[in-house]
Amino acid sequence: MANISESPYTISYPEIIAVAPEDGTEVELIERFDCTGGAMWVGHHYIKSPLVRSARVVGSTQRFMLKPGCVDLKLEGSYFPAGISAVELNDSEIGISYLGMGGGGVGASVCRASAKGVLRAETDPSGGGKIAGTRLWLPRMERVIIGIDDTDTSEEGATWTLAHNISKAVEDEHSRYLSHTIVQLFPVPYRTKNCVALACEFATDRPEQLIDSFQKLVEKYTLSDETGLAVFRGFDPSPLEEYGKSVKAGEVTMADLEKIRKYLDIRIEGRGIIGASAAIPYYTRYEEALSI
């Protein structure tokens, strides 16, 4: 039986990550959790914070879309017991301030201050009926989404497993693997079988190193001469959305790719680049991604 006597009334978030666009107008805060009830409670209440634009669960992460600023939270037990009170950015770091009362204060303070990814934190004493919080600083990271398609053949291989294994292999303290999305494409005649592509999402402060490492492993392990590998660097890949819809709706050609090439860093340009590029805007949009 595990010993919990050292800290029976606290838990530690496994990891907290923050990404922001170059202009610093918004922040996506990504919190990995292993206590589902706590995460659902947080999502329900934190969305009431004036700085929180949206909240959603993606796998074992809770994602908050935030706007920079500092506010005075009008906390009220049961109705609004915890939230985010400040969002700050500089060139290399993102600061997040949490505040809560009672158990919400425990979560807003010590539970987050000890998470992986936190550079430093200023934390209040918490527990019982106290109001407590923490101001923590995270590395400022950017989003990178890598699209990949056509690494297998009719005899062997599976692109979705290769993409996941490579994503785990390239992950380090500078590049965090966030999500893996299988995207159903229109079943063209020359497909291997199911005609899907992959979008793998990362948060990173060393994008070139991440992309180069990913490319080298794809080139090492691909079984196909038609592999496609495309990279989107940026906060929001919505400029690729119409192209993605067209690839899910019917057969397109390499000429159609020219309309979106300027948004992408194309690393491997076999026939699979059509699907690899189309997968990118569907990252974490699982229901849409899987529909034809």
Describe the structure.
The protein has 292 residues and is of the alpha+beta class. Helix content is 25%, strand content 33%. It has 9 helices and 13 strands. Strands 1, 2, 3, 4, 5, 6, 7, 8, 9, 10, 11, 12 and 13 form a 13-stranded mixed sheet that branches. Strand 8 and strand 9 form a beta hairpin. The protein is elongated, with a radius of gyration of 21 Å.
Strand content: 25-35%
Structural class: alpha+beta
Q: What separation lies between the terminal Cα atoms?
A: 48 Å
- The total of helices stands at 9
Helix content: 25-40%
Mean pLDDT: 94
Instruction: Give the overall silhouette.
Output: elongated
Q: Give the strand tally.
A: 13
Rounded to an integer in angstroms, the radius of gyration calculated over CA atoms is 21 Å
Biggest beta sheet summary: 13 strands, mixed
Low-pLDDT residue intervals, each spanning 5 or more residues: none
- Would you list the SSEs in sequence order as H and E? EEHEEEEEHHEEHEEHEHHEHH
